[in-house]
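Bit of a strange request maybe. I'm writing a small parser for structure token strings and I need a real example to test against, not something I typed by hand. Could someone generate the tokens for this chain?
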Amino acid sequence: MDPEAWAGVEELLDRYIGVRPDDYVVILYTSDSCESAAWVSAALEIREIESRRVWMIPLHDEQFPERLASALPGERLKARLVVLSFEKDTMSHAPALAATLSSYSKGTYIVFRAISACPSLFSRALHRSPVELSARNATILERLIPAKSLRIRTQSGSDLDVKIDSSKHRWISNRGAAKPGGVVVLPAGEVATYPAGINGVFVADFAFNVNAITSQDARLHKCPVRVEVRDGRATSYKCDDDAVSRFLDECFGVQCAVNVGELGFGTNDAVHDAIPMNSHINERRPGIHLGFGQHNQAPGIVGYQCAIHLDLIAKGGMVWMDDQEEPLDLENITPSTAPHPDITRDEDVFSPDELDVDDCCGIMTADGLRPFRSPSCEDSP
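Reply from user aminoacidic:
Good idea to test on real output. This should exercise your parser:
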């Protein structure tokens, strides 16, 4: 096993979970993530911490609640219940998991859900702790929440004018910090909101991440994607790679997918080079990303829903706030020494009850894209 990956397993147990000798750990995993589950299980066995593994079929698994319930400690729980889940493309069975855990007091359990489970999750993305990510995220939030307008530029050629309305649109801060009874989405390292207005050019030169199952190489360093944005919508897009262009045609062809639903800032500086896999890991790289399609706000705040969320990611970026002369350099963030703001949402994906679907992420199934109920939108470009 790669020593860096094993170190990431230890980071997960020590700095994310803070695992204790008397914890009871349940590891959920899909077949594509059995290696991740095995690594964590082995590390717990070495520490002589009691654990159980529960296999699950992604998205649809009628027997999963029964298998999960049989693995839980019930009245045998001595201290804390820790639930870990590992999936490659999906984040499945949230309602079933919530229903099964409802018999436990929220103060007695924590849940960590990892999407993009692969060796790079451990060898790269988990090498920054929640404390470190909280401090980096806080720096961005301290400067951007009070702002009304942003000017964003990247070395790849992006030049965007953005309007911010923090009184209306909530901020999301994914930093890997656990709360009793809460759900932590891994990998961590992102700050995001919904842009009240956005115009200009965006050039994604790092990678993409889409909430669908795809074998398309996600890296964009050889074939950047250039998107023209007007009044919060992609009006044109271009990539010199034919395969990527066809992929973009398919994504942007979905109803409402041309809408800019997210302005995101990656903060995990342990992520350097993009990996080929469609992955949240790439999204955490320090830089700017725009999420097209589904937005990241509560229902009713933004007047549409979309079946797809496509993040296009650029390396680095300079952000000017209002009339300030000193920009925020996303490649060189000075961690804040102040407490992390308490007005943000912790996670970077909607819970299923908010979108009225069964599962977060991974909406591509054998039958194609799972439909969302969407109000009508203007036509795609």
